[in-house]
Amino acid sequence: MAASPKPAQRKAALTPDGTLPVAYAKLGLFTPTDLVLHLPLRYEDETRLTPIGDALPGRSLQVQGEVTQCDVSYKPRRTLVAKIADASGELNLRFLNFYGSQAKQFAVGKTIRALGEARGGFWGMEMVHPRYRVVSANTPLPDSLTPVYPSAAGIAQNLLRKQIAVALAQSDLRDTLPDSLLQRYHLPDFARSVRTLHHPPPDIPVNQLEYRTHPAWRRIKFDELLAQQLSLRLARNARRSQDAPALPGPVDLVAQLQAALPFSLTAAQRRCWDEIHADLGERHPMQRLLQGDVGSGKTVVAALAAAQAIGHGYQAAFMAPTEILAEQHFHKLRQWFAPLGIEVVWLAGSLSKKDKLAACAKLASGAAWLAAGTHALFQEQVEFARLGLAIIDEQHRFGVAQRLALRQKGGQPHQLMMSATPIPRTLSMSYYADLDVSVIDELPPGRTPIVTKLLADSRREQVIALLRDRCRDGTQAYWVCPLIEESEKVQLQTALDTHAALTAALPALSIGLVHGRMKSRDKAATMDAFKRGEVQLLVATTVIEVGVDVPNASLMVIEHAERMGLSQLHQLRGRVGRGSAHSACILLYQTPLSDTARARLKVIFESGDGFHIAREDLRLRGPGEFLGARQSGAPMLRFADLEADIDLLEQAREAADWLLANQPDSAHRHVARWLGGRQEFIKA
Ligand code: ADP
Ligand code: MG
Asked: From atom 13 of ligand 1, which residue's Cα is the shortest distance away?
């Protein structure tokens, strides 16, 4: 509403080829269709005028009046005060640090329309820095609310408004969905919905706009969810049209491995294995997520899958996000497979060049059947003779790009991902809808629940005394040092200090230390000593967070628990309670606690159920952060809220199936409108 509308209007036209100014990329806007879907954050009501005499302080309102006086003063600050009046009263418009040409706009006799918050000033009612424009007495009022769009530095709201209006007028707003579908879900048509949301009529229920419950909003959210569902299904169909080696039927190696295990599978493990087994028998690449709480026994299920591939003459690769974890898998796999005559190789960044070359040579020649390692496994120079199965542990720790790199290795291997971070239902219905999911929903027998205690750091001495007693009785314990995100160095120093302090306080105990900066050989040696029981107390940074499995350890102390995320606390706590001994986890926290830290600690204290914790985590953090690496680069939902719009999500799922089966063209048009070029990442 600022001055001189002419030049702005000229700029407002979209460039001839329909592309947008580069600055708009910051807002994720690339095409006119993107502009149409760039919906307002809120609105201002410029459709009516309040008589100046009725202006109440503290309310945002629009007035119009004739300038009766304009004063400019320079002391104490550069100030312009223009008095405007209508038949009902008068009001001062006050501007600090005004710009030169402004004074001219307020020449006595001009008519000014101003929007702002009125307040009682020393000289009577005033507005400070209102939005205003010079009008003539009969300039019409707009007939719809004025949208306020999400914007960014360097993008003027006014220009954005005009360009969006142009895009609305020029774009093809025809519906992508058939009437029958809209009727079924009681949804209004697309064109009317976007027009309403950009330019709502003045009498629209404002609450419905604000809370996004208006039918127009529901239509937009439905569309967004539908686009997500469709693109995931299309990605999945594309995968199903690719070839992978079929690895069906019973395989001797699997039976041998099962027979050699010191335990029998739980019913849940058996069910998950059956599901994976069925996938492996198909001619297209499996993409399955094996989910199970910490300690539920995912590794052995993955090992059976590896045996299935190897039994068919294909190689399998087992990738883990940290070297400690990868190495542990390596030992476990070797322990299981070596007696069956299957060579396992180890590949990690820390290997000497010579050892790396030797390992690579074995994988390239096919001499080694099974590889365990970090993402070093899937770097360019590593080639597999016949990779049939890629297993990715703790998949949420890997970025999308890494997963894709892995998929590209050696044709299309089957892929098994594992995660101990349970995916809440809303997410598995949406962001993870392209994956098949198996859930191990039962822990192996003989586990005792972990007792969790919350203690203020001032009671540290007591905790040390407890450690002294428990370790003397043969318990093994972890002491996890604070996570200091900003600085790995500080964390390392804290670990060193803590190790020194505990060694001094507990001279009778053998106390080990592992941290991320250690040489892998030293790390592995310490872990081994801990596993063998030679080290009783292990001081560690959060490198032990994922997957580490030492069943005899039954006590865990976590320092500065208030700084850690929920899933991290759950993972750390899951390092104990793996054997039959009574286990405990002591969370030390530093006061004062922030509200969110208090909320997190309450959740972890009250619940040991990974699913419940994940749901709370999602609630406290929102899906963007919860999904972390996995979604980087993939389109996030902008409008729909998975919790609040669960009904729409279910409808969108149903509609996606129907549309793909009955009107695939509409489905493609719909995806194109909503995702444009942005779906590449999911498709890959
Ligand atoms: P996670 O699912 O957290 O990766 P692991 O695969 O590390 O769990 O298994 C945790 C521990 O439970 C391991 O020591 C493993 O050998 C053991 N385990 C796995 N399955 C069973 C079972 N069916 N019965 C008894 N112990 C099992
Ligand atoms: Mg694991």
From this structure: 297
